[in-house]
Design goal:
heterotrimer, A mainly alpha (319), B alpha/beta (379), C mainly alpha (293), A: 319 residues, mainly alpha, two-stranded antiparallel sheet, C: 293 residues, ABC transporter involved in vitamin B12 uptake, BtuC, 11 helices, 2 strands
Chain lengths: 319, 379, 293
Amino acid sequence: MKKDFLLFVAFSLLVMAAPQYFRGGYMMNVLVFVGINTMLAIALNLLLGYAGQISLGHAGFFGLGAYLSGIMTTTFSLNPWVAMPVAAFVVGCLAGLIGFPVLKLKGHYLAMATLGLGIIFFIIFNETYEWTGGPSGLSGIPNLQLGSIVFDSDVKNYYLIWGVTLAVMLFALNLANSRVGRALRAVHDSEVAAQVLGVNARLLKVQIFALSAIICSLAGSLYAHTMTFISPTSFGFNFSIELLTMVVIGGLGSIYGSFLGAALLTLLPEFLRGANDYDIIIYGGLLMVMVMYMPGGLVRGIPALYRKIIKPKGEAGHA
Amino acid sequence: MNIKVMNVIIALVTLLLSTNVFAAAPIKIGALFAVTGPAAFLGEPERNSAEMVVNEINRAGGVKGHKLELVVYDTTGDATKAVQLATKLIKDDKVVAIIGPSTTGETMAVIPVAEKGKVPLISCSAGSKITDPVKNWIFKTAQNDSLAVGRIYEYLQKTKQTKVSILTVSDGFGASGREQLKSQAAKYGITIVSDDTYGPKDTDMTAQLTKIRGSHSQAIICWGTNPGPALVAKNVRQLGIKTPLFMSHGVSSKKFIELAGDAAEGVKLPSGKVVVADLLSGSDKQKKSLLAFVKDYQKHYNTEGDHFGGHAWDAVMLIRNAVDNGAGSAAAIRDQLEKTRGFAGIGGTFNYSTTDHAGLGKDAFVLVEVKNKDWVLVK
Amino acid sequence: MQFDQILQYTLSGLSTGAIYALIGIGFSIIYNATGIINFAQGEFVMLGGLFTLSCLEFLKLPLWAAIPCAITASTVVGILFERLAIRPLRQPTPINLVIITIGGSILIRGLAMLVWGKDTHSVTPFSGDTPIAIGGATILPQHLWILAITLIIIIINKLYFYHTISGKAMRACSYNRRAAGLVGIDVRRMVLFSFIISSAMGAVAGIIIAPLTMTAYDVGVMLGLKGFCAAIIGGMSSGLSTVIGGLILGVLESLGAGLISSGYKDAIAFIILLLILFIRPQGLFGKSDSERV
């Protein structure tokens, strides 16, 4: 346990020190998005990696958080700090309600149901234009404000987003090592066996689904308040798939893996920008190669690679 | 990851990002176009046109001794990416002006960035709300869709076809058109008897059109960009609907005629003058620019230039003129842009002022009809 | 008048649904043989259409020759995909397989964008485009082609899976892969077969709809998604129930657009599907079976 704690402290320090390198440049902006995507990937990982339940519609909860927050602060001029928890609460309740029938499904039926949910949310964002502004988007969402500090620059947003992301990470790490985490893994391995041992598998699955949705909603609200503009295209099926890719590429069931996956998939387009129209090919090819050569995800693949290159070090190479 | 590795990576990144190797202080212009993704039909001609005209200006010795340097980024039509890249243009590339983005949604997303960064932005997208209300740093070259709607409604009013059905695509372009179609109807004494939408990736619109057929309207207005409207035209023909069909300026290129084939015959739409450049009378102020643009584009890219590319062409030329008038900094370019009067470009004749950053009048659009696989002017 | 409209909605829905069904069967065949949900299935639809276009326009082949060429070319891509992406996978967990097919679909789409450009292309109909009146509704000759070819493919499928050795072997794999291996079936070969069949079927779907819907490098995404839904409604069967699944989806969409709201038509279709799943968690046609512990 102590080692885990030290690792988290080291990671936090690294995160907090990073702005020193980038000095408010464009990379700061990209890193803000790495933070948001890390939160989302962790949310999905709790569901997929720990409870073993797939979701192809998580972008919907992300969008719901963003839109609820956006509408409450623009149309109803609510304070963003009030809007965010309200949005998270509403999304959590909604996910809980939907969760009961949805999580009864298994395998590809579950995939299909969550995919359908994501698409229904997307259509609602697109069609209820009196509220959401429809496909043209919702603009004029206020920045968050703390006392006299307005979070309107990349550096300020970086600390804000990463502050929340680190909190989410810490929470997820604790959850994974708690009684609930063990129960979840039991459900993952065999639902029936877990039931026999006294775990209320169905309730547990719904709870984790709701929790996952709440984290997505929170990330969505933060996204809305940092971007100050949202439109439905950011919350479509493609983004759900991208989230899934982040979780798998990073490493299923690993919180740091979610960070690695989110960081890789967010930074990759930046490095491929010079490749013009070829970037999409490199991107697709890289995904395939990653799965082929690092089937356990980056979080297991990198240490393995490290050990392969520097053999005699043995245990020293844990990421 | 240890700090040394981190340092190396950062050094590499900085190296990659700083590509400025020109001498004699070039003027750096940023451009955000949706070169790939669903809006590529806008972004690609825009990028091509912008690069073409910048190269030409530089070959002719630049502007006042300064070369122009164009930094183009592909937004893939995604608002989040557009915002990131606008930040990159302002912070890392330190551009003095930004051209684009291609779509209204992206532009709305980027506006706060440009306003905060104090860099003039000339959008290439059509949404009226980009410059209404007027924002200090934001201009646009694409004709407002309100003008296109006005053109159609004027014609319908004249020909006494007052009951119309509208069928719009459910993306930014269609939504904005739908809003204008609804809000301007009363002004022209037009009633909308049926209001439907279709998805940008839909492959069959017969359901919507069957409903429209039952609504006994006197005209159908379809608002979308390729390939949807071509499918609508084909489905209209399949269902044997005889009601006149109108389209938006979103399909005013040869591509639409090619895709819809025979079904395109008789379709009327408002269009920038570029598709009918050779039909314009000699007294038209734009004719010279238009013919030059069409010829150039044909030469460079071996395909017909359309008015989307024209938006980027206009934007580069507007900036060029501003620099020619002595502007060097972002703020000075903004001030010079606002003083632009009577610039005859591709989209129309631009007259910016402190109260108008769209700059175009109703004459920016002409109504054209497809006849024998080509455009003719509707009088 | 009202009846005419309903007839038109139904006919339109059936022809769109037939396409979803063809794509859906492709999904099911691969799923049954390998347990993979092949997210690249839609790309074969795109390839079918675009290869036909190339055969017609650049090789100047007549239509009857262009179609088999396009199917062959798409199938070759399918084989390459299986050989280069699926077979070398070291840990073929279902989720890794999903990601690899997603990567594959992005790659194929990217290559297609380079080869054919970003524009949409039109393909001439097989036998003209003079509308045919049925009652008060109209359809195009191409719709008849679609319905007929779908029917033929179902029949061929049935014959193949129930009356040939390799078809039976493939079914054995779908029931229990290990047991199939134990009785001497070359499971890896069956996996390759499944990719060949489903890429060919995807291509056929792409070819027969291209004249109606036109084609471009990115048409595969949406069609693939709809085909996936059709397959799931049909309980991932490679036969009639997936066809019914596709037809249900097509008709729901069309009726939803015509009678309720065109903006919400996809949402209506999905809400009904969700309700069906909530009532029957084992799928529309599935028998509920107990989980192995």
